[in-house]
Amino acid sequence: MKKIYSVLIAALFLSFSVAAQTSHTIVSGSYYYTPTNLSINVGDTVTWTNAGGLHNVNFDLSSITGQSFGNPESFITSPTTGPVLHTHVFNFPGNYIYDCSVGSHAINGMVGTITVNGPPANTVYDIVSNSPDHTSLKTAIDACSLATTLSGSGPFTLFAPTDAAFNALPSGTLAALLNDLPLLTNILLHHVVGDSVTSGMLTNGQIVTTLLGTDVTVTINSSGVFIDNAQVTVADITADNGVVHVIDAVLLPNPGCTDPNALNYDSTAILDDGSCQYATNTVHDIVVTSTDHSLLEIAIDTCGLSTTLAGPGPFTLFAPTDAAFNALGSGTILSLLNNVPLLTDILLHHVVGDSVMSTMLSNGQIVTTLLGTDVTVTINTSGVFIDNAQVTVADIVADNGVVHVIDAVLIPNPGCTDPNAINYDPNAIFDDGSCQYATNTVYDVVVTSPDHGVLEVGIDTCGLDGYLSGPGPFTVFAPTDAAFNALGPVTLLALLADLPQLTNILKHHVVADSVMSGMLSNGQLITTLFGADVTVTIGPSGVFIDNALVTVADIVADNGVVHVIDAVLLPPAPPTTNSVYDIISNSADHTTLTLAIDTAGLAGTLKGSGPFTVFAPTDDAFNLLPSGTIAALLSDLPQLTDILKHHVVGDSVMSGMLTNGQTVTTLLGTDVTITINSSGVFIDNALVTVADIVGDNGVVHVIDAVLLPNSSSVDELTNFNEEKYLYSINLLGKKVNRNKKKMVILDIFSNGKVVKRFNP
User: Fold this and answer.
1) What domains does the chain contain, in order, with CATH numbers?
2) Residues 416-471: tens digit of each pLDDT
3) Which residues touch 604 (CB under 8 Å, ≥6 apart)?
4) Distance of CA 465 to the CA centre of its chain
């Protein structure tokens, strides 16, 4: 059968070769060859005919340059006036240049080119793509971008599963593989050998290594030739870059345990064979079962590291006790539990990606943690220390590593954490007291000046003193006391009483860069911290910032420069709006609602394009709620947000559009019911006291009660588990009167759960 197949292939190739040979004609005339450029195949014949005159065909030296053309083959014919100049068969692929070397023919443009193409490609990829039985394999190769590889120089041996082989896989497998290209690529590479291995080179029991780096086993018996469990149905389909063997099953590499959490996880395994084994006593289990590591357990769970530390490892965990965490202070613990990225970094600083027994430690040894930071081992007469933490219990062996108990929390990367310091370290975790501050800041220049008392008061009042004492750089255009007094006492007092406006004005005098006077140019625009521009004017009268004259320039500070000016710079007024939020925030009867909206972060929404209808409970409406309810809501943002959304409709609904019994859907997705009777208009149980306050983006209706969604009740807002509070507070060594539950003012964690904040 193999011999017959080889004869057929040879016959097909011969017939293709014969059929592919073609003759071409180029006409030669006065200073021209036609066609000038010709593309042919290897084995084609070209004949140059003469349309008149004395010509030749020169493939040797250029008649123009006298240099060799560098053609794959060279020849030159004698000049002739005959009807045929020359006939040539091209057997070498490449680009050929030629001319007529008679007289000035070449110089006058009698030059031509011939491109000889090689034989058509017949790579292992071409064999697959041209086969009607390998459409699935072609699809897979194309999806994994392996067509170029298998069309390359090789050599390759491809064990090619048929469509029937792919169809024999469980239903949906091929589709799943096409959605997992890394896995599919590995499977395909498991079918390719980086050599040309014909069937005659195979032996029974032979091991052949694939491009994946995995092995397949050759079995030869009376039933045929097998590659692993796949039978070769057609062998030795020869390609230009190797050989293809058709097989009747898909080869699957390296079955094994594919679960990274298993002890015997095999990263090279492709399909899971059910062999996974799991640890029963991991380093995480040791922490969980310990009575001295409840805070460490909470921290690990909060950061989502429990699965990692229950995985195959190996790990070494330096485990701080509850006493070690409590030594940080309750405020620090709560702060860390609310800053998961920071807490995660600290925990990873306690874990080493190896199993390090105490006997493997040496004095001065540097050990690298999973965070990528280092801890130092110190061994002396007092014991073994990891940085500043003493190992109190060593070598608690787990299935996936070892635990060493320590008496202090390890803090990575101490340094200066104050952004206002000159030596601020953004990588520092905890402040080590090393912060250094500028001694002559732009703020110091203002404070020490006898002419800038008002500016100093404004900066201090607006809380900008720390900022302007920071690293900068800053440029401050500093109005004198006389400049501020020129505004008049009424305006000046109004500014000092309106901190937002005063802050905006002061920011309009500060630039986030050090701009010396020599850097200024006439007409220059400079953007201030307020976000608006000031204009520089330079003329005979001096340098002006907008309308303010620079009277003293270039007072250099450690963090920038100060220019004294004789007038106050006023920023442009923001455009006025009248959104539903503006209506509420400008109302004297809606201070609690405004606070709630701001706390929940809904101000931006209610300032948006809308349209909105807001049912706006007054301050009196909120005060009708049980004592402590408002404080509880302000501490429970998800609950607060839901209640606020229950007061807003995503449409502009005027009172004239309401009907008795009508149901209106809120932004929460809940419904409120309209009741209209002789007593007035009600939204659920709330009376509309003022209707149809129209804004730019909707309408506000004032109501006399707070609307609660169906899933909420006043009891739910105020009720909490007293025992959890007592337990948590006792953990911290504090006491509370059972009858004064609202005295709890901190977020306290108990058993991994947050106990919500309540203010007295």
Assistant:
1) 2-117 (2.60.40.420), 124-247 (2.30.180.10), 283-406 (2.30.180.10), 442-565 (2.30.180.10), 580-718 (2.30.180.10), 722-755 (no CATH)
2) 877 777 778 887 776 667 787 667 889 999 999 999 989 999 998 888 888 888 87
3) none
4) 37
